[in-house]
Amino acid sequence: MNILNSTIKIKRRKLRVGRGIGSGKGKTSGRGVKGQKSRSGVAIKSFEGGQMPLYRRLPKRGFKSISKKKIAILNLNKLQNLVETKKLNTENTINLDYLVKNKIVKKTFNFLKILGNGDLKNKLNIEADFVSKSAEDKLNKIGCSISIKKISNE
């Protein structure tokens, strides 16, 4: 009989340890005698019997900077797409606060950077922390007003 495809439920009773010497799992309940592992509530995590544990065998990798700036990146084609789908109003000044308010950018970001991928057809008032050279050139050709905030080095 194939156990995996059987329609009959197979129930195995749970082994009740510590129920007398005749059960085979009485007295010390299969935990041996004394020592840390015989006590209740003890789990020796990542202990491999004296062998160098896996987490110590693997090399350390990566670095998380505490002072990392969280920068929201917007390309010109994304801005054009937002204007076409009426998610951005061309009369308003487009800055980080406006983008967060309209749920275009998450509020975890501290800075806004405009990149020059794609093309923009509408004139916009943009207020950003950083602007790439290619984006600045494209925006100046259209006649957009760009104001870049001065950021003090912290």
| Span between termini | 72 Å
Sheet with most strands: strand arrangement: 1-3-5
Helix content: 10-25%
How much strand? 5-15%
Shape: elongated
Output the structural class.
alpha/beta
- Rg from C-alpha positions? 32 Å
Give me the strand/helix succession. Answer: HEHEHEEEHE
Q: Could you report the average pLDDT, rounded to the nearest whole number?
A: 87
Instruction: Report the CATH topology name of the domain at 71-148.
Output: Ribosomal Protein L15, Chain: K, domain 2
The tally of beta strands, per DSSP, is 6
Question: What does it look like?
Answer:
The chain is an alpha/beta fold. It has a domain at 71-148: Ribosomal Protein L15, Chain: K, domain 2. 19% of the residues lie in helices and 14% in strands. It has four helices and six strands. It has helices spanning 54-57, 76-84, 96-101, 133-142; strands at 71-75, 93-94, 111-115, 125-128, 130-131, 145-148. The strands form two sheets. The protein has a three-stranded parallel sheet with strand order 1-3-5. Strands 2-4-6 form a three-stranded parallel sheet. The mean pLDDT is 87.
